[in-house]
């Protein structure tokens, strides 16, 4: 159960979203950081290569990592996988020049919450960062259907279950209800409105469910739900 008070939630809501920008092109990196700062975000760090991104992100703990995939030294998907694995609360928005389906799917599998092409406008970028910070998936138009299709493909080919795997933990009725709506593709805001609860409460239920199921991100959570047919209920 969350111990957050209404005052805690209000303070968190009033605090600027902390963002880190990772791109190997200095002019592009600086322009994105400037645009986000001017839009009211707190840009806490930037980085120009993968190893530097991992070190700085661990030091400054941003809410959102705006991440290019094509980085020297360590590819963006590896940066994403390492940071999301060690910091489950971190959200990653990939901002890439590539719209190749393989790149999109690899980014999502590595733990990215969203994927935006660099052709996006400043308004689209700032909206995407806000959605990503809230835990809601955001994709350049045309890519969302691709990602949902991959969720379903993964669910139709589930990973083998070890014979000594412990019984799955029991979820509460409300956790199951939230999980079902996540699997249907609803955003946290839409789930909150449908269940008449706060956005923060939805996030807490999702985090509790991830912990119980020993999952790391929304991709794994949706796969778990689809494998059990919760998206069809």
Automatic annotation (TrEMBL):
Ranges of residues in domain Response regulatory: 18-133
Domain of life: Bacteria
Lineage: Bacteria, Bacillati, Actinomycetota, Actinomycetes, Kitasatosporales
Keywords: DNA-binding, Phosphoprotein, Transcription, Transcription regulation
Organism: Streptomyces globisporus
Keyword Transcription among UniProt keywords: yes
Domain called HTH luxR-type: residue spans: 164-229
Protein name per the record: Two-component transcriptional response regulator, LuxR family
Entry-linked InterPro entries: CheY-like_superfamily (IPR011006), NreC/VraR/RcsB-like_REC (IPR058245), Sig_transdc_resp-reg_C-effctor (IPR016032), Sig_transdc_resp-reg_receiver (IPR001789), Tscrpt_reg_LuxR_C (IPR000792), WalR-like (IPR039420)
Phosphoprotein listed as a keyword: yes
4-aspartylphosphate PTM positions: 68
């Amino acid at each position: 159960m969350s111990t957050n008070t209404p005052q805690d939630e209000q303070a968190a809501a009033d605090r600027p979203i902390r963002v880190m920008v990772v791109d190997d092109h200095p002019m592009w990196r600086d322009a994105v950081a400037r645009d986000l700062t001017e839009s009211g975000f707190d840009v806490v760090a930037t980085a120009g290569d993968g190893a530097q991104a991992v070190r700085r992100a661990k030091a400054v703990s941003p809410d959102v990592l705006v991440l290019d995939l094509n980085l020297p030294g360590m590819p963006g998907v590896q940066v994403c996988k390492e940071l999301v694995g060690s910091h489950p609360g971190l959200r990653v928005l990939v901002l890439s020049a590539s719209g190749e389906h393989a790149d999109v799917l690899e980014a999502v599998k590595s733990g990215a919450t969203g994927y935006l092409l660099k052709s996006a406008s400043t308004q689209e970028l700032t909206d995407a960062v806000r959605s990503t910070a809230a835990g809601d998936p955001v994709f350049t138009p045309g890519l969302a259907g691709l990602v949902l299709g991959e969720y379903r493909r993964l669910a139709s080919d589930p990973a083998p279950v070890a014979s000594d795997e412990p019984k799955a933990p029991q979820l509460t009725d409300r956790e199951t209800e939230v999980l079902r709506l996540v699997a249907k593709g609803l955003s946290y805001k839409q789930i909150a409105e449908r269940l008449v609860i706060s956005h923060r409460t939805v996030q807490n239920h999702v985090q509790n469910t991830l912990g119980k199921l020993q999952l790391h991100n929304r991709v794994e959570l949706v796969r778990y739900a689809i494998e059990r047919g919760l998206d069809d209920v």
